[in-house]
Structure formats: C-alpha cells, structure tokens
Amino acid sequence: MAEAVFQALVNEAGLADQIHVDSAGVADWHSGELADRRTLAVLRQHDIAYAGRSRQGRLAELPQVNYILA
Fold it and tell me: Which among 8, 33, 36, 56 has most CB atoms closer than 10 A?
C-alpha cells in the first residue's frame, strides 16, 4: 500500500520522470502474490491504482538505491 500511495503522490507532483518508486520485502513469503484484497479495496476508495506484486529485495539492488524507507 505504501508503494502505491507514494507513487500516486510522486505522479501528482509531476515527478514520475525523476523518482522511481519500488517496494520489496526482506523475505519471500508472498513473492509473486498480488496485494491483499482489503488493501486493494482501500486503494480503490482513494482512486489509487495498483497492480504490483510482492517480491523479495536483493542485496545486488542496494548500490542503485538512494533511500530505503522502513
């Protein structure tokens, strides 16, 4: 949900060409799964589209990242 909300804010600010938003977990428990139906329902209530899937982050990605929010 945080990824979807932050991406919506980035888009509204006209910064989508400057800021890449991504989300990943520390474990692979739900890798490849869609967001929970309740999460999607809340996002729809706020007109926020989201079609992402869960994934586990990789250490190899860290050199490409400027900020990590937890």
Answer: 8
